[in-house]
Amino acid sequence: MRRDIHLSKRIRQYRGRHTPGCWLLAALMAALFVWSGTPAQAGPVSGSFKIDIGESERLLGAMVDREHGNINDAQFAGIQMEEMCRNPSLRLIDRNRPSLVLQNTSDPNSGSEISQFTIDLEEFGYEFGNGDFDPDPFAGALTILSNRSDSGISMSSSYGTISDVDLTQDPSKLVLDINGLTPGKAMFFRLDLDANPVKTMAFPDFQHVMLGGDIGDGNGPADPALISAVFAAGEGSNRMTAATEPSPFDPGIDRILDMAGMIEGYHSQSFSEFYSASGGTDQIPEPTTLMLMLAGAGVVGSSRYSRRR
Question: Are residues 92 and 159 in the same domain?
């Protein structure tokens, strides 16, 4: 009985001696414990993508085949050499109309499909076009979906807008609306790059316009395009989406593209290359507001307790 009375007295003394700041600190620490044990995702939908770009659709197809174990390194190298030795004029045009492959690398159990993909050019003076001559394989379209794509995939393309407030079309922002790009599938497509106003480079090179390569004009590297994806899962009223943060399509090209926009000689042609980037919805939580509140509460509680003592 005496022990219970003594314990009750000590509790009352504790409550009287400790300020509300200390109780707030305890509550915030409990909240932090719960928050730190909760997986951090950008919304209820999660997903990841990989995108590759190059002048040769055949080489990109070989890259995917090698990833899946359908061909070996030696076979891939042979295809790369053959693509390097193609007609220089065709290679010039293909660098102006690069091929891309977008793969959904999400967890197969997530059910997350890529419903939209955006490429936003940051280098001033360039935009997405719909063909340079007539007849033209683009036939007025901004993109061409390749039959190398996995079955069940469809795509439409359009210009994005200046902003959410200014709905004016922005020719430097390409938006792909996609159906059927579920986990494990790959979509191949081509796009066309134009200069506006027309510069000395009649056929802009994707390595400069989209990837930030330096063309040796004294202006240094270009600004790489920003890429982002939207993932969707569920059907009807249960369908949910999550978007990735725009990130630079910057593979770090470490050489001068001195022949960009020009025809290379047969015996001095550069390798047919491709470049990769990836992204996803998963994010690492940053200790922002909650941690600042904890720190502030700790300082207040500590100082008040010291003064009372």
Answer: yes
Nearest CA among 102, 51, 44 for reference residue 233: 44
Model confidence pLDDT, tens digit, residues 257-305: 888 878 887 777 887 899 999 999 975 444 443 444 444 545 445 444 4
**Which is nearest to 291 in space by CA: 42, 27, 29, 22?**
29
One domain, residues 107 and 7: no
Q: Report the number of distinct structural domains present in the chain.
A: 2
User: pTM (2 decimals)?
Assistant: 0.77
Give the DSSP letter string of 115-168.
EEEEEE--STTEEEES-SSSS-TTTT-SEEE-TTSPTT-EEEEEEEES-SS---
**185 with 63, same domain?**
yes
Structure tokens at 277: 């980037």
**Domain-embedded: residue 293:** no
Task: Check if the beta carbon of residue 53 is closer than 8 Å to that of residue 211.
Answer: yes
